[in-house]
Amino acid sequence: MPLFEFRCENCEAQFEELVRQGEQPECPHCESSKVEKLMSVAAGRVTAGSGNLPIASSCPPSDAPPCSPHCCRLQ
């Protein structure tokens, strides 16, 4: 079951939900079925000593505001 992000069109709450194909989730806050699927932020894994650059290297400088509500610096 994939994990998706949704926003309720009724109360504007954002939430994540595990859904199967064809299922329509309800808002956990107001129980409305008027929800919109959001584009999720891609996740990745960095292993110590792997030689890969950290995921946060693509973020704006630390003195800049967060790039989005899901900015890696807010995690």
Percent of residues in beta strands: 15-25%
The number of helical segments is 0
**What is the helix/strand order?**
EEE
State the secondary-structure class: mainly beta
The coarse silhouette is elongated
Tell me, rounded to a whole number, the average pLDDT.
Answer: 77
Unreliable runs, pLDDT <50, ≥5 residues?
none
For the biggest sheet, the summary is: 3 strands, antiparallel
Number of strands: 3
* Helix fraction by DSSP (H/I, runs of at least 4): under 10%
Distance between the termini: 24 Å
**Rg from Cα:** 16 Å
What is the strand arrangement across the widest sheet? 2-1-3
Plain-language structure description:
The chain is mostly beta strands and 75 residues long. The chain has a domain at 1-39. 0% of the residues lie in helices and 20% in strands. The chain contains no helices and three strands. The model has no long low-confidence stretch (mean pLDDT 77).
Layout of secondary structure:
Layout: E1 3-8, E2 14-18, E3 35-38
Antiparallel strand pairs: 1-2, 1-3
Write a concise synopsis of the structure shown:
Helices cover 0% and strands 20% of the residues.
